[in-house]
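WARN retry 2 of 3 for item q-0093 after timeout on previous attempt; input resubmitted unchanged.
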Amino acid sequence: MELMWLLFAFVGGLSMKQLGLPPLIGFLSAGFLLNYFGFESSENLQSLADLGITLMLFTIGLKLNVRDLLKPEVWVASAQHMVIWVLLVTGVIYGVTYLGLSYFAEMTLQQAALLAFALSFSSTVCVVKILEESGEIKTRHGKIAIGVLVMQDIFAVLFLVFAAGKTPTLWAFALFALWFARPLLYRLINSAGHGELLPLTGFLFALGGYYIFDLVGVKGDLGALILGMLIAPHAKAAELNKSLLSFKDLFLVGFFLSIGLIALPDLEMVMIALLLCVLVPFKFLLFFVTFVQFKLRARTAYLSGLVLSNFSEFGLIVAALAVSSGWLTPQWLVIVALAVSFSFVFTSLRYKSAHSQYLKLKDTLRQYESNIRLKEDIYQQPEGASVLLIGMGRVGKGAYGALRPSLGDELCGVDADPQRVRKLQEDGLKVIVGDGEDADMWENVDTTDIKLILLALPSVDDTTHITQQLRVAKYQGKIAAIARYDDEVEKLMSTGTDYVFNMFTEAGAGLAEESLRMLSAEGEYQMTNAQL
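OK item q-0093 returned
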């Protein structure tokens, strides 16, 4: 049976990937197909599903930056959006009960509110995947979106804690002692190194946190989240998260398969799921209005709201608890699963052209933004620079080191990650914060004296977008970029880039040149010794 689970999940996930959609849509579809062919869920599959959820919460905790969460545009905006959404959508769903649809006919106001709450979350899996693939997870709008996701996850975990019906024991107060256990946790992470012991350490912490909290009558999932939060400040938190990523995604397959095995959807379920997806554009509109209310720029509000406009796998977890508690019928879990899948399709397709959409709509959208700028949204000027280097990752930093001896202060680096910029500035580099894909930035940054812009970005699509925006902004200087493959070189040249460095070809040529210099120097050294 396990082989059939893997086979159906693989085929479903691969099919969706070929269509440019999140594989988890294929996993849900695989569950429905398995159900259709008579397969049933089992304890093994449920164990995988539970482990996937626990790891997901732990990895969310690893990414938590409490400072970012404390900003009003994150935590207040998240709470406000959720409250308004639940109130309005509850009214809409309860109003639909008068249409006489079978699954709505006997729905109570409390059930409508619970369904609205389940649909209020945005998908961590979908949003993070889209932002990572577009290289925007460290941008301003990317960080806002991640912050909102984390706040939503915290709300969901709190709901799960209270809804589970457990009464914490007096020993629950001892959980505060975990704060003082951080030095021990850090020492264990350091001792684990960088190999196979590191993910094993992550499993130990995630499951350990789960069972410690469960032991004292508190929902174990909250324990996994809090253990992740305690470890988040550690220097290896990002590495630990990356080492667990594949395991988390693999075990979550079990969760999505288990949803499909609950019940088969009929035509009315599909129609209701599509009807619920009509709420997705409203979700975007509510996000946009909320963000601009908190003085975010129109572009940040637009992109953050667009990527968050979907339903969440966490909503499925909430719905699953509601079904297990008898608050909703099992058919509603299938309907929510379908709505989640359809919303992923909407977001994936819509966000692919998000930047070009904003360029067309920016004049209209800017009318709604505040005249007051938050500190993070004030554009920095590259004072005294004639060359800009966009992207200060490994390649960009290497290029900066090679150019600085010749250019000095005329060279200025630009990166969208404030933490990276801060660290580079501490190392003495001239670097400013800026998102190269931000069309507004190029309209507000003075590029009159900039003769050359180097784009050291890993994504050829990002490089293309920036090149197009520079041309639209009437930039008159030269543009150079990097690429990994020949077809990428051709694509960049066709979009207006003046010169493209092929990373592999140029690296090979550079290695050969340096090798010849070494041989030449060695020959001269030997000749000098012979003459002596």
